[in-house]
Amino acid sequence: MANERAVRLTHSILFTLITLASIVALAISASLVANYNNYGYPPVNTNAYRDRIRICLAASIWTTFIGLVLTVGFQVMGTKVAFGILTHLIPLIIAFILFIIGAGSLTALTNGTDCGSAEGGFDRCNIVKGLVAISWIDTIFVLLALIFVSVLAIKARGGFGARKSTLYDA
């Protein structure tokens, strides 16, 4: 059985970091979508920028929502199966997939772009690169949370199993 205090502390730190990084990514991607919808997307790869920034927006909305729900829910009802291992794993896997798709594809699109040059840069280029950075940071935080919950799920296999276990049962 895992130390309850260590699980609670690790969960609080990880999910607070995830939530904060997701709120920053949400603000950046929402401002980019609003700006580009009003003034037009970059002249090169217009649909590519639109789609990739919107994937990052969807990933940050999803991760902010689950981060808030799982953080508050675990603190209030951490001993209930409703906020158990499986309840953490599924939304984290979805968040990880969304962020990997968004951050990876936006990185590939902006990799050769020089925001300082007149021919390579575009409006809000540095902000798009900032979105790439915060998306990768959030991806790393979600991966760390996935590893944390997966280790607890593996430890819980000896007891009730991952479906019926809380994070404390591991």
TrEMBL record:
Membrane spanning residue stretches: 12-32, 52-77, 89-110, 130-154
Domain of life (superkingdom): Eukaryota
Alphabetized UniProt keyword annotations: Membrane, Transmembrane, Transmembrane helix
Name used for this protein in its record: MARVEL domain-containing protein
